[in-house]
From TrEMBL:
The gene is murB. It is found in: Cytoplasm. The active site is at R153, S201, E270. Its cofactor is FAD. It comes from Phorcysia thermohydrogeniphila. GO terms for cellular component: cytosol. Residues 15-193 form the FAD-binding PCMH-type domain. Keywords: Cell cycle, Cell division, Cell shape, Cell wall biogenesis/degradation, Cytoplasm, FAD, Flavoprotein, NADP, Oxidoreductase, Peptidoglycan synthesis. This is UDP-N-acetylenolpyruvoylglucosamine reductase. It catalyses: UDP-N-acetyl-alpha-D-muramate + NADP(+) = UDP-N-acetyl-3-O-(1-carboxyvinyl)-alpha-D-glucosamine + NADPH + H(+).
Amino acid sequence: MEVRELSAKELTTIGIGSSYPVYFPENLEELKSLLRNEDIFIIGGGSNTVLSEKLNRKFVSLRKFRNILLEEDRITVGAGVKLSELLALQIQKKFSLFEFLAGIPKATVGGLVAQNAGAFGHEIKDRLVEVKFLSRETLEVEVLRDFSEFGYRKSPFPELGAVVEATFKIFHSQKVKEEMKKFVSLRLEKQPPFYLRTAGSTFKNPPGDSAGRLLDLAGLKGFSVGGVKFSEFHANFIVNEGGSFSEFLELVEMGRKKVKEKFGVDLELEVRVIT
Ligand SMILES: Cc1cc2nc3c(=O)[nH]c(=O)nc-3n(C[C@H](O)[C@H](O)[C@H](O)COP(=O)(O)OP(=O)(O)OC[C@H]3O[C@@H](n4cnc5c(N)ncnc54)[C@H](O)[C@@H]3O)c2cc1C
């Protein structure tokens, strides 16, 4: 099985951390042998993940799970397929699926399912037909068709196991490219430019409000600790300009504390912080 030492900059969009051994299983048997180990962390595109420099864990990437089966009303895709590849296929074959996520860098099918990614009123779970996963408990391939445990940026994964592939409902659409352009423009109106190192939204939006708005009103837009800061474009995005994991944690705590003091609201992390 391929194993490579990869840096946090290669593994995650925010690029905080050191370098780590990453295993690239090619099939279910190899994945199974890794999943026996309690200490593994499954990494997708790393677009919602922040890593401690001192991690002593094995990383597993399902980058080699790249199957795609396009049918009349559904598509089945391997966990390692990238969002950008799916969007390109949508344009080529003219079908609607994830246009509302256009513009998100690096994300993979496994990470989209695990985070129940969503934007502009749409969520991954609304399009799911089934998820095939390797169970951590039984080490067997199981199929999930009941998505009642999915919620706002929440799913039973990766705790339940490794997503191996997912099947989504699709619809024919002549205007999918225009829709993507529309969503990318909407994104760029309020989010930091895509080339900056961020991990997407830091905190989940509290019910009926926006974490970015509260952080902004708490005076944190543009506020920095060392090499990390709350973006001037949107305070809920933390931008890494050469900072460390401890600086990231300090900034997160600062955000939580100020918002709690000013509004009595407890902010909950959306990014997956791995220690
Ligand atoms: C600029 C920017 C904008 C963003 N905008 C949005 C947005 O609008 N909406 C939104 O929802 N998110 C957004 N995100 C966050 C992120 O893109 C999503 O959460 C995405 O779903 C993460 O996918 P990933 O493959 O990068 O996952 P990772 O960051 O690699 O992993 C995220 C979680 O998924 C788990 N995971 C990954 N693969 C698997 C697998 N095969 N099986 C089981 N568990 C797995 C990991 O263990 C981890 O817990 C944004 C990120 C950035 C950088």
